[in-house]
Amino acid sequence: MVAADTPRTPDEVVARAAKATDLADLDRAVASCFACPRLVAWREQVAATKRAAFRDQEYWGRPVPGFGPTDARIAILGLAPAAHGGNRTGRIFTGDRSGDVLFAALYRAGLANQPTSVAADDGLALRHTRIFSAVRCAPPENKPTPVERDTCAPWLHREIELIKPTLRVVVALGAFAWAAWWPAMTAVYGVRPPMPRPAFGHGVLWPGGSASAGRTAVPAVLGSYHVSQQNTFTGRLTPAMLDEVLNRARVLAGLDAAGARARGD
Ligand code: SF4
Prior knowledge:
Layout: H1 10-18, H2 23-31, H3 37-49, E1 74-78, H4 86-89, H5 97-108, E2 129-133, H6 146-163, E3 169-173, H7 175-189, E4 205-206, E5 220-224, H8 229-233, H9 239-252, H10 260-263
Parallel strand pairs: 1-2, 1-3, 3-5
Antiparallel strand pairs: 4-5
Helix pairs in contact: 1-6, 5-9, 6-7
């Protein structure tokens, strides 16, 4: 059943995102969104047909909200939920190979309390870190259209706005997320992107901007190859490369890099 304030058009996404009072409210609103007809049809079709290995499970089959504490200093920005990962479990990067790689690395970096992420009720908690995606519904072939990207952007922008007081660094997983950051920065911080825009690359850092009269500091942006199977199975992205990015993110966020997990800070 579709509730009265369920967003069904791009304008309704803009309006509902703008009035989200906090992250919990935003998460509820995101999960109720029906604004992209192609993605709504796809997420529901995947949830109905399922993958054989998960045929006994009930798929989430809805938009997947962000995950992590409200006072996060580090944001990890991905592309979109996976059809049989987040779209199945209801939690971003949970229940798929990409998530296996990402959460193991977050654990090694002292940013997660456990190295695995298999289900929304598995006890996983993040430290200092919130994970979200540029597009909140699983797209066919992991390829949202530009219209779908733009329709979903207000959710991302509002989420960044809500963690703005503590946010210090954004780790962009892949070129799509990297490209999604610049309009988000303008929307949230009122700052124009650098021209030309820095090209995406693994380990590329855009240092952000300092706080000035009445303005919050713009977070640094750090590029990382996406944790997709295509990258991790081929060795394009290794665990050591990911560790380096996350430890750098810790330092940029004002956290110590070394021995973090042991201390639990
Ligand atoms: S992709 Fe975003 S805007 Fe489109 S239906 Fe999903 S949550 Fe809504």
